[in-house]
Every structure is written in C-alpha cells, then in structure tokens.
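Here we describe the complex-level prediction in full. Unlike the single-chain runs in Section 2.1, the four entities below were treated as one system.
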Amino acid sequence: MAKKRVSIKDIAKALGVSITTVSFIINGKAREQRISDEVSKKVKDYIKEVGYKPSHVAQSLRLGKSKIIVFMAEDISNQFFSSIARFIEEKAYRNGYKIIYCSTDNDVGKAKELISTFKMRNVDGFIITPTPDLEDVIKDLMEEEFPVVLFDRWLPDVDCSHVIVENKKSAFEGTDHLIKEGVKRPAFISLESDQTQMIDRETGFREAIQQSGVKGLELKLKFHNLAESGPYQELFEFFSKNRDIDGVFFATNYLAFEGLQALDSLGRNIPKDVKVVSFDDHYFFGLFKPKITAIEQPLETISEKLMETILNHIEELDKGYVSRKIILPNKLNIREST
Amino acid sequence: MAKKRVSIKDIAKALGVSITTVSFIINGKAREQRISDEVSKKVKDYIKEVGYKPSHVAQSLRLGKSKIIVFMAEDISNQFFSSIARFIEEKAYRNGYKIIYCSTDNDVGKAKELISTFKMRNVDGFIITPTPDLEDVIKDLMEEEFPVVLFDRWLPDVDCSHVIVENKKSAFEGTDHLIKEGVKRPAFISLESDQTQMIDRETGFREAIQQSGVKGLELKLKFHNLAESGPYQELFEFFSKNRDIDGVFFATNYLAFEGLQALDSLGRNIPKDVKVVSFDDHYFFGLFKPKITAIEQPLETISEKLMETILNHIEELDKGYVSRKIILPNKLNIREST
DNA sequence: TAATTTTGATAAAACCTTTTAGCAGCTTCA
DNA sequence: TGAAGCTGCTAAAAGGTTTTATCAAAATTA
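The structure predicted for the assembly as a whole is:
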C-alpha cells in the first residue's frame, strides 16, 4: 500500500495557496519574495506534518543538475581505489552529492562506453583515472563543459584538472634509499605502460641510479586483470635469471606482493640478500615478515583535493574554466626490508 | 561553447512531424503504432546524424524509475564489500542499471539518513548490509514498495529478501577441522555483535566444540572503525593470558590479521603451537607464512544472486511480493596453518 | 485627490519524456 | 449508400519542480 508521494502541488491545493508560494518557502526565498510570515509558517508546518521531500528527479530535470558525480576507477575492488572511494563518498555526501562508481579495467572501450552513458544521466561531474588513449573523450567532455578531474595519472595532451602525486620524486627517493642501504644492483619492476604515473616512477628510478652510478635492471610486465593469474611466474623467472639483484623497487604494491613470493620461493633473504621498496603502501606491508618499506600516497588528501576541485568546477561553471593541477607529496615509510 | 543538447522536440520540429511520432520510433513502437517506414527511416537517420540521446532524467520523472540501485555496504573500502561492489557493478551495467554506493560504518543513524536521502532520488532498489536496529527502516522501505535485498546478514524480524552464506555450517566445519587436527583448547575470536552472521558463526563454533567435548574459549571485541587503532592490544593480552590456547577460529579476516600479529609477537608458532582458521578468505592468507586456512565466501555468486533478486523485485513490482531467501555454501580452503 | 510605489501573492512557461485518446481520410462490407 | 474498420499520425496531459512576469490591493508620495 504505497502511500502516494506528496508533491508541491498537493501542498498548495491542501492549503489554498499557489505552487509558486510553496516553492519559494521551501527554497528559503520567502522573505525575498515577500511571502508573509503567517503563510510561511502554515506551509512549513504542513510540510513537516506530511513529511514532504522534494523530488530530486524533478529538480534535476528543471535545473539540469543531478547532484551526482561519477567516480571512474581502474578497478573499484583494488584497495587504492576503494580507499579513495570511501573518502570521496564522505566528502560528497556532506556536500549533498551522490557518487556513482564504475571500473574501467584500464580499457578504453569500456571507459568510452561508460562516459557516454553517464553523459545522458546529466551527471554533474567526472572523477576519472584515465585509461590509455582516452584523450579525445576527455577533450569532448570538456568541450561540452562537463567538469572533469583526473587522478592517479594524467593526460599530457589535455589541459584538464588533475590530482596526482610526486611519482618521480618518490621513486627517486625510494631508489636512492635502496642505494644508500648498500644496493649495487637494483631492479625496477613495473608494468608495460606509457601512463604518466608509471613513466614518472621509472624516470625517478633511472635518475637515482644514474646519479649514483650503479647499474640497474628493469622488468616490465603486462597488465593482468583480475580474472587472469598474476605475474608470479614471470617474476620468478626474472629473479632466478638475475641472481645478482640485491635490491628491488616495485612500481606498485600488487607487483610487490607477487614479487615477494617469488623471492621467497627462490630462498632470497630480505633484507640480507635483497632489499625491497614498493610504491603504494598497504596495510599488509606492515604485517609482512620482514615489514616492507613502502611509499605511501596521501589517500585522504588526494580525495579531499579531488572533491574540492570537482566542486569548484561544478559550482563556478560559468566563471571561466581554469584547470587546477595538484601534485601531492608522498611519504616513504622505512621498515625492515631495507 | 556547450552545444545545446537536442531533445525530441527539436527533432520533431526539424522534421515536421509530431513529438509523439518521434517518441514512438525511438522506443521501437513504430510498427505497433503504424508509423510508416518512410517516416521512421527519416527520423532514425536524423537521430543518428545529430547524435540524439534521450534524457534519462526526463525519463525518470515520467516513468518513476531511475535505473539506479543503491549499494549500501558497511564499508566500501573493506575488501569483502569492494569485491562485491565490483561484481555487482558489472551485472548492473549489463542490465542498464547504475550503482550508487555508500558506507554505513555499521551505524544506524547514518544508515537511516542515507536511506531517507535515497528515497527522494527515486532509486529503483536497495542492496543493503543492515546495521543493528535497522528493522523499522527496512520495514518502512518495504511498505513503500521499494525493492530491498539484504546481504551478509539479515533481520529475523523482517520478512525481507536476503542473500547470505552458511555461516553456522562453515564455522562448524572450520572448528571441527581444528579439532580433528588435534586442537584441545580452541578460542573463538569475534566481535561484540548480535548480528546474525556473527551469532551464526558463534553457534557453529559452539556446536562443534560441544559435539567433540573439548573446552573452548571466546573473546568478543568491540567494533573498531577505520579511524581508531585496531584490536591488536586486546588480542595480545588475551593470548598472553591464555597460554593453553592451541587453536584459534577468527570470525572475520580483519581480526585474524591483527590476531596473527599478536600471536607472532608472543612467539607462538603456527601451526605447531597454535592452529588457525579464519572466516572470509583473503588474497593475503595465501601469502602469509604459513599460509592461513580460511573459509571463502562465494563472492561472485553472492553478487549474482543479489542482482538477480533485486532485478526480480524491481521488474515484477506488481505481481505480489514474495521474499527470496538465499543461503549460499562457502568453501574451506585448507592451508598450512592447520 | 491622483499618481506612484510597495506588498503579498500567483499564473504559466520551461525542463524532456511517455502515453492515452482521438482525428481525419480512406477502404471494406453489407 | 451508410456503417464500420483501418491507416497514419498528432494533441495534450502528466510527472514535480523552479522562476519570470504579472497583478490586484494597499500604502505612500506629490
């Protein structure tokens, strides 16, 4: 027995006033529109009595705003993204926005499809981890004046707001830390990817080894999605072929988890034989034996900046777009593995 | 220079036909409504040319359906929930639905607030992990004919659809497994909670020890949210006070992670001194040394059933509500810790 | 007193769809 | 020849809001 939802019209009729009047009162424009306190009170009381709530859908239609922001992650089940999702959610709700999420699996096709379906939904903004080759879509989005903020990585060819971290600098520091701890033959394990975050981490590694004169080694693995088996086997082979490696920098934690297993299978002791640093700190690095040194991204600050930026874009849509590019520092958590 | 979005009206005007005609053609009712193939083609071609996409907001308003489902988790950044979120997302999108997520932190107040804001949004359905004391809100929701499915736990006092797992049976099996491996003094570590999933796991544990005649021990911890520090300290004290414990059943993986650390600090060897089983398998249980025996919930099947159930409720709203109660089996993954 | 301003409100358009009811004009059948 | 049925299409209402333009009555000013 679903009681019919009460609308402004019902209120107006019941109280013998006009729809306009009710709307003004609801929106706090009673004073401004010279509605008498008497009428105002009557309407407010009635609203409370019947528990009226405005229809967001109707508001969306009328105002062209949905109060919905899309959060497009590479994979929402990944700890990094789900943690950000959690922070973002809180900040969004506090500001009256809701979040619709989706995962691209780093696949352009999927990303394009998702973006195009969301455009129809009148969403107010997009927070996106861009897949490779997404430049054109992002440009379109921006031309159509959709607020967009990228994160985790960015697109050099598009002048779009983004929130990222100091990938190069932190990778440099991490590598330098390895070298300072006596590593002579460091390896850099990364993904086959020309996305900015990976490139920057690689550059950081290279600059560090170049500066100190040691000879490094690099391994780039294919992107595995969840369904496939991890890169364990490849890592195992790599480490068994290159016995002289005495330090490893993992470009992302998922590689570290697999790599640590491989090193363990090979009987390499950490940190005695091999020292280890990983990008992207994780709860489990603290539980590992030995505890793993890692670079921690400031998840909450990233989320804060993302929301701040997107809300800024949404709320001053008219006042001329200026992209905001935010680069945040990370923190190197030194633990037992180095 | 945002090009104005084209509407049905624009198409009608441009082509000199009526809005009705265009709408019929768009919705594949041309034949049925005897629109000539000639007109039909003309309209379709034009639509393709200008790239018309219907406004979902207007459709929502007109049809009273938003094609949005709410996914209300305890905490979206928790691996269990984010994994389900990932599966759900996929299944929802394939069926033309979008997912809005939110986290309750197991707090009724927050849950109530969230539900009430979502009601206004004309969402089509709710997938919920109920917090304690949420019965009334769920009842209201159901009375207002909102489709609802609960998961992870359920509310005995409400006849609402749910998808859960065989908590009691699996806890029994896990405990029984410990005992069969020679454990004489098993401990059950859980949360202070009277939610069904925890109660059932506890019952399973109790029945297993009762059946075999061994004497068990229980510890119930407070629910910690993310901001607070974990229950490490309490676990440490518990284990150091009860040196005779030679087997532990953790009711959820987060407790296991903390508990394992505590056991390690105390120098207890696993599995020689203490055998360990945990509810909720996790990628990291396989990386641990030793690898931890755990009960794996069928995440994908849970998600499938959730979507199936909610879609069923959404699409046959009229045909009389019958709650569906689905209980899925888990899998005991025996590893090195037992 | 007449003209003007202020007060307290309202009608109606707009946002974009879907869908019911209906309207000419033509064909068929008795 | 008149009634009934079909064909191809459309007008208009409804869904719930916001906002602009407008209006009558009362109050103020000249």
